[in-house]
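Data deposition worksheet. Section B asks for the primary sequence of the deposited chain exactly as it was used as input, without tags or linkers unless they were present during the calculation. Section C holds the resulting structure in token form. Section D is free text for depositor observations; keep each observation to a single sentence. Incomplete worksheets are returned to the depositor.
Section A, Depositor: J.P.
Section B:
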Amino acid sequence: MASSCFRRARISATLFLVFAVIPFCVVAQGSTTTLSVPDAAPTSRADFVRASMKALQFTLMKDVKKLPYTHIPASLMPYVQTAHELGALKTFRNDFAPGKAITRGEAVEILVALENLKPVHIPKDTFTDVHFLTPQGRAIAIALANHWIAPETETVFGASHPLTGKEGRELLANVLAFEQGTPPPSVPASSSGGSFPVYRIPIVSSNTTGFPKEETLRAIWAILNEDYLHKEKLKGDELGYKAIQGLVQSLNDPYTTFMSPKVAENERKGLTGNITGIGAEVDQKSGVLVVVSPLPGSPAEKAGIQPGDQILAADGADLTGLPLEEAVDKVRGPSGSTVKLHILRSGESLDVSIVRASIKLLEIQSSFQGTIAVVKLLQFGTTTDDTFRSAMAQIQQQNPTGLILDLRGNPGGLLTAAEKVVSSFVPEGTPYISATENGKTGQEFTDHPPIIHPEVRVIVLVSKGSASASEVVAGALQDAGRATVVGEQTYGKGTVQNIHGFPDGSQFKLTIAEWRTPTLRKIDGVGIKPDIVVTDTQRDAAMVQALQLLR
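Section C:
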């Protein structure tokens, strides 16, 4: 076990949310770790080291000695210093690079070092990417022997692959179970007789209501395989996904959806800022695909797509009534290809041809208008999560007299990024969201100190395309009296979804809660009402109004 002199009291789990029009998810309250990374997103080295030190209850060093690493944020320094003194960061040599994604092998090596474990015996090289005579290989052998983590396949461990948020939480939970001498909760031993565990979809608990008409479904599938004339149509995976989609779609909740592996992968890419398609954030209302906002500089914007446009068909294929992700997939396509959209705008039908493109979102754009800083956020993705506070620090160094935070057309993204934005302007410990689940309401508080000086006046610009995490930020700063909100009534996305990932790459997203502003103002279907209502025109009336207010 780890050295007791570094132990600390266990930190209670926190409700972590991920916001977007697509996607929008939450890590359930009651988690055994504090790793707030979306299930499919890569985990940074900084996030994993911080979460590991918290989960394993290490008391952090207070005297920060000189480290062999550079560019370590002050808030991260105690975690890195303590882990370094325990010899847990040798895998990084002299280059910690806190924002870089941690690999599965590096994560395992850190935890084995923190637990101070040695292998009883060295197994034969079972995997093509692991050599058990290396330090990392020995750590992987220990992790496998104790069922901390499963290999990706029978021949590939995946040592150099990024550790996802889901894998990181499961890995930490299994290490905690190891410390307590209980079976690991997420990596069951293989039932196939192999030497290492294999990940399987968890079996439904015995107290769960049985699947309706399960016997009938099984009988129909058996009859189809036995007697159906066109057996070539019985493509198991495709039919299985459609059956699941039919079940989920019957709930008539546009935010509770099942995503096939292809669709789920497209969604994961969106949060990293890399997308291929027309470049528009969309939602679904009454079975119809609706544009929330075209992305700046995107093919959709250049083609004249507007917020509120209803996309009825793509290349002649009717999109109405389709599951949200399936409809979106028909609009997406390879870069350079053309899609013809049939659109309904304010009761008038029109056809628009758009050449798809690969789009890299520059999430944070900043400039100065005299002494007034203007910061535009295009979404709340990994870039904002990682770099927003450092960008604010650079702006504060220039002593601005005012700051305009432009969230117009921003459809949302990660709540961790939203917290980084809100915390830059308000005292640490300020409530920034309220969430209601199973009849219980709880608040979340900022856990970073402010960066922008309290005397710097702040204006937040919003539009009807501002949704989800944008509404979190606007509502929180408005409730705290820290900013004046200017622009149009926002979109009104106020429900919380939980995402479950499966080994085949598919995902299930379901609505589990509702969020409101810190003062419990309802957002879902309502939106954030600006302090000063300005309808944007071609001369950018909202920006003009904001600049006049700050001068």
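Section D:
The first strand starts at residue 16 and ends at 20.
The first helix runs from residue 45 to 55.
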